[in-house]
Amino acid sequence: MTHPAVEFLIGAALGTRVVVRTRIDGGYTDALGYLRSIDATTCTVETKRGLVDLALAEVVAAKEVPPPPPPRPRRHVGDPLG
What we know:
Largest sheet: 5 strands, antiparallel
CATH architecture: Roll
CATH topology: SH3 type barrels
Distance between the termini: 55 Å
Number of strands: 5
Helix content: under 10%
Protein name: Ferrous iron transport protein A
Domain Histone acetyltransferase Rv0428c-like SH3: 13-63
Strand content: over 45%
Region (Disordered): 63-82
């Protein structure tokens, strides 16, 4: 039986923003970004740091997440609270 998180990834459209939790030595790690590819053994998530290949056998959780919030305006010297 396939893990429900893997089933979600298989059914998700490429380009969906996801967070994927995988097992690593000593614990777990998360990849947050856009699903770029998936095959029988791996999926690729585009994070802020670049493309991350994840083994589906190590996936323990995955879900769709909303788009990131818009960037906050920069404060300039002389602005209140700036």
